[in-house]
Automatic annotation (TrEMBL):
GO molecular function: hydrolase activity, acting on glycosyl bonds; palmitoyl-(protein) hydrolase activity
Keywords assigned by UniProt, alphabetized: Glycoprotein, Signal
Family: Belongs to the CLN5 family.
Reactions listed under catalytic activity: 2 1-(9Z-octadecenoyl)-sn-glycero-3-phospho-(1'-sn-glycerol) = 1-(9Z-octadecenoyl)-sn-glycero-3-phospho-(3'-(9Z-octadecenoyl)-1'-sn-glycerol) + sn-glycero-3-phospho-(1'-sn-glycerol); 2 1-tetradecanoyl-sn-glycero-3-phospho-(1'-sn-glycerol) = 1-tetradecanoyl-sn-glycero-3-phospho-(3'-tetradecanoyl-1'-sn-glycerol) + sn-glycero-3-phospho-(1'-sn-glycerol); 2 1-octadecanoyl-sn-glycero-3-phospho-(1'-sn-glycerol) = 1-octadecanoyl-sn-glycero-3-phospho-(3'-octadecanoyl-1'-sn-glycerol) + sn-glycero-3-phospho-(1'-sn-glycerol); 2 1-hexadecanoyl-sn-glycero-3-phospho-(1'-sn-glycerol) = 1-hexadecanoyl-sn-glycero-3-phospho-(3'-hexadecanoyl-1'-sn-glycerol) + sn-glycero-3-phospho-(1'-sn-glycerol)
Name this polypeptide is given: Bis(monoacylglycero)phosphate synthase CLN5
Species assigned in the record: Didymodactylos carnosus
Function: Catalyzes the synthesis of bis(monoacylglycero)phosphate (BMP) via transacylation of 2 molecules of lysophosphatidylglycerol (LPG). BMP also known as lysobisphosphatidic acid plays a key role in the formation of intraluminal vesicles and in maintaining intracellular cholesterol homeostasis. Can use only LPG as the exclusive lysophospholipid acyl donor for base exchange and displays BMP synthase activity towards various LPGs (LPG 14:0, LPG 16:0, LPG 18:0, LPG 18:1) with a higher preference for longer chain lengths. Exhibits palmitoyl protein thioesterase (S-depalmitoylation) activity in vitro and most likely plays a role in protein S-depalmitoylation.
GO-annotated biological processes: lysosome organization
Pfam family, one: CLN5
């Protein structure tokens, strides 16, 4: 998966000639094994999920109802607290009218959000990224989980489809981090948006009055500068850049929370955006240098209309 120097040089040339933003999210042809160093900690990934590559099948005569599901991130630990910051987790629900059975489908991190956002920096300065995300499909919708007391929580029927319904979701790859105009995110919300788009191509009818807002963590930056792969940075950049790069990630790694400290760490990370005003951004296995704007970070929770969701740009 590592970019070799040739393709890195091609990328550099592209960037110098005026980059085509946003940089496309790179698909991989197969899932690399997760490093055994990477552990999920408190909550296991997909404990009751179906086997890899399994999907929901329905009778051709069935009608499947589709639900938008939304709950505050880490609600199992903090209740509705994260809803105050509009940091929500999104998923999709499906219900068979024929059998009454229902399912939940969500895309999330194998080893928790913090591990996905920043790498582990070993004492000898090597990095380990625990940044894989995957789809989890399981039987049942636990209504109480999504129909919580926060205003932003949601368990809402948004559409239905009849007939053949065996999706080939192509959304099955690495996770991404925060989104800007330069790089689009690849998180649970964008998974849901892409999925709804795919469903509409299969003929799903959405209710036109459905209103859905999605969380985005926005970083505001000047035009990103490509610096290269980890190996390139270690071997070919000057020592001040190299040291700053390692220091940056070591700082964040040291904030990696123990189970009790999640919120504190989040606030520290938030603060360091405002003080340091620079960011090394990791995407498609290369690093970019970002000079942050006066307002470097913002969480938005904006409406995306059904009409916009089913436009080809999300396909
Ligand atoms: C990932 O994060 C969780 C919770 O923050 C933690 O318990 C776990 O040890 C982390 N994994 C690694 C490899 O550090
Ligand atoms: C860095 O340390 C790790 C863990 O001890 C080891 O596996 C790896 O080979 C070391 N890398 C280098 C470049 O020394
Ligand atoms: C999903 O199925 C469970 C178990 O039958 C039921 O308790 C729940 O109300 C259903 N939820 C929806 C949204 O259909
Ligand atoms: C979820 O909550 C809303 C508002 O309280 C209620 O109208 C709806 O019936 C609930 N849905 C389920 C499946 O419990
Ligand atoms: C090191 O490289 C960076 C990025 O190319 C450059 O901005 C900086 O001026 C260089 N520093 C020194 C001391 O050469
Ligand atoms: C949803 O988005 C719309 C449009 O961006 C905004 O006016 C509204 O306040 C948002 N709703 C919530 C609950 O934040």
């Amino acid at each position: 998966m590592l970019l070799n120097i040739v393709s890195l040089l091609l990328l550099v040339v592209n960037v110098l000639n005026g980059a085509q933003w946003p940089i496309p999210y790179e698909r991989v042809s197969s899932r690399p094994p997760n490093n055994p160093y990477c552990q999920p900690g408190l909550i296991l990934f997909c404990p009751t999920g179906q086997a890899k590559d399994s999907m929901i099948f329905a009778q051709p005569s069935d009608t499947i109802e589709i639900f938008a599901l939304k709950k505050p991130v880490w609600s199992f630990k903090f209740g509705d607290l994260m809803a105050k910051f509009k940091i929500m987790h999104d998923a999709l629900g499906f219900r068979s009218q024929l059998t009454g059975k229902n399912w939940t489908m969500e895309w999330y991190e194998l080893d928790q959000l913090f591990n996905c956002t920043f790498p582990h920096v070993l004492p000898n300065d090597t990095f380990i990224w625990c940044n894989q995300g995957a789809l989890c499909v399981y039987e049942g919708i636990v209504d109480s989980m999504w129909n919580g007391s926060s205003d932003l929580s949601m368990l809402k029927k948004i559409g239905e489809t009849s007939g053949v319904f065996y999706e080939t979701w192509s959304i099955w790859s690495d996770p991404g981090t925060a989104a800007t105009l330069y790089f689009d995110s690849y998180d649970c919300a964008s998974f849901v948006i892409r999925s709804l788009n795919t469903l509409s191509q299969y003929g799903v009818q959405f209710y036109s009055d459905v209103r859905l807002n999605y969380t985005r963590l926005n970083i505001y930056s000047q035009e990103p500068e490509l610096i290269g792969t980890y190996d390139y940075i270690i071997q070919h950049t000057n020592s001040s850049l190299k040291n700053d790069f390692i220091k940056f990630y070591r700082d964040f790694d040291s904030k990696k929370p123990t189970t009790e400290d999640w919120l504190k760490s989040l606030l520290q990370i938030y603060e360091s955006f405002f003080i340091q005003k620079r960011f090394y951004f990791y995407y498609n296995d290369v690093y970019w240098y970002l000079r942050l704007k006066a307002t470097p970070l913002e969480v938005t929770f904006d409406e995306i209309s059904i009409g916009e969701i089913i436009q080809p740009k999300y396909a």
